[in-house]
Design a protein that fits this description.
single chain, 279 residues, alpha+beta, Immunoglobulin-like, five-stranded antiparallel sheet, three-stranded antiparallel sheet, 8 helices, globular, protein transport, AP2_Mu_C_sf, Adaptor_comp_med_subunit, membrane
Length: 279
């Protein structure tokens, strides 16, 4: 997928270059500097030159660039770049030129951990903070072995998005159902299109690893696109259509996007959203 990651400041100075494949040459950094940073006419976040594609976003005063060869999933590349910026902010408080220069060793560690041969692996902040820390500490051999065991279980387990031994004095969960209603009516009063765009968002303060469930309407039917999973997506992305079906009393869901914590088998079988929520 990604051949390398580049970080530039606004002047075009190269801050970080991490190559994951042999086709990532240092001269590609000069190509991006000349073709994008030095060229004010370039406004597109994607630039393809020959077989090389540069996908970039801007965070404060730095450019975050993903370099790829061939035909790759651009949406996945941009989602990873934004996630990388989010990781940087969670570690350093901000993700700008000063933060990158002051923590360039940590940036390289994060890149080596979240990408394997250019493929995104683990981008969960809580999991990464277990073994990539900003503070050094001298530990006993027994403590080091215990921490190593916890890290291994967390990184390779089925619940990479939630760490173990989470405790709260009071168990709470807040669920928000957000809906936008869209209606298109002709001059004669005929409904041309009616749909609802929405999402189900949850903030959980729960002890341990509890399993939560949402029950959906019994008259629910899935649209043609069915359900899809996405990295870091909302728990639900609900879209209705077809005024005729709504009039008949059925509820249609289309373009559904589920968070990775949702058990897809339960959703497919009985339309139940069953999941262990992130902390």
């Amino acid at each position: 997928m990604l051949s390398g990651i580049l970080l530039f400041n606004q002047k075009g100075e190269l801050l970080i270059l991490r190559a994951f494949r042999q086709d990532m040459r240092p001269r590609l950094a000069d190509v991006f500097r000349i073709q994008v940073i030095s060229n004010a006419q370039i406004r597109s976040p994607i630039l393809t030159l020959g077989s090389t594609t540069f996908s970039h976003i801007k965070s404060d005063n730095i450019y975050v660039v993903g370099v790829s060869k061939g035909n790759v999933n651009s949406a996945l590349v941009f989602e990873f770049l934004y996630k990388l910026v989010s990781l940087g902010k969670s570690y350093f408080g901000r993700f700008d030129e000063e933060a990158v220069k002051s923590n360039f060793v940590m940036v390289y560690e994060l890149l080596d951990e979240v990408l394997d041969f250019g493929y995104p692996q683990n981008t969960e902040t809580e999991t990464l903070k277990m073994y990539i820390t900003t503070e050094g500490a001298v530990k006993s051999e027994q403590r080091a072995l215990e921490d190593s065991s916890k890290i291994t279980m967390q990184a390779t387990g089925a619940l990479s998005w939630r760490r173990d031994n989470i405790k709260y004095r009071k168990n709470e969960a807040f669920v928000d159902v957000i809906e936008d209603v869209n209606l298109l009516v002709s001059a004669t009063g005929t409904v041309l299109r009616a749909d609802v765009n929405g999402s189900i968002e949850m903030r959980a303060y729960l002890t341990g690893t509890p399993e939560c469930k949402f029950g959906l309407n019994d008259r629910l039917t899935l649209g043609e696109n069915g359900a899809d999973t996405s990295l870091g997506g909302a728990i639900g992305n609900i879209g209705g259509n077809k005024a005729s079906k709504a009039a008949a009393g059925s509820v249609t869901l289309e373009d559904v996007s589920l968070h990775q914590c949702v058990k897809l088998s339960n959703f497919t079988n009985d339309r139940t959203i069953s999941f262990i929520p992130p902390d």
